[in-house]
Amino acid sequence: MSITKRLMYVNRRAPYGTIYALESLEVVLIGAAFEQDVSLAFVDDGVYQLVKGQNTTGIGVKNFSPAYAALGDYDVKKIYIEKESLDQRGLSMDDLQHLTWEDENEDYAEKESMHLVSREELADLLEEQDVVFSF
Fold first, then answer.
1. Residue 39's domain spans which residues?
2. Which of 133, 20, 34, 132 shows the shortest CA–CA distance to 74?
3. 38-66, pLDDT tens digit by residue?
């Protein structure tokens, strides 16, 4: 018998320049594969991880941002974007990739995975988790 844990992965760093963003994505997919209740939060420079249209050819690293689109296939449906972090960086939800999941119970209707939350709402969500990982 497996015990499902509520796991929150908090992404605070820019997508490139360190290994943190890619490592976070990998462990999120592993946690989801083991049927854990996985959530992601993007705060501070972590919001840049979801910016659409990333082009990494100038820095000579592989662009892994398209992999976020697979999160719904791993049943990762709770992706939280901190509003204050977007505002401070001059970004809006329109600047980010559109991530969804398909609801099997509703004839595979596409549903929104991304949720814009305030810093206060995010703090409440963090309190509800069994485990919080910060990257």
1. 6-134
2. 34
3. 999 999 999 999 999 999 989 988 899 99
Q: Which residue's entry shows tokens 């420079």? A: 45
Look at the chain and report how many structural domains it folds into. 1
Side by side, the strands of the sheet bearing 6-11 are 114-117, 78-82, 37-42, 6-11, 131-134
Helix, strand, coil percentages in the chain from 3-state DSSP, rounded to 5: 40, 25, 35
Q: What is the pLDDT of residues 80-124, one digit of tens each?
A: 999 999 999 999 999 999 999 998 889 989 999 999 999 999 999
Q: Is the pTM above the cut of 0.70? A: yes
Residue 110 is part of a domain; what is its CATH number? 3.40.1260.10
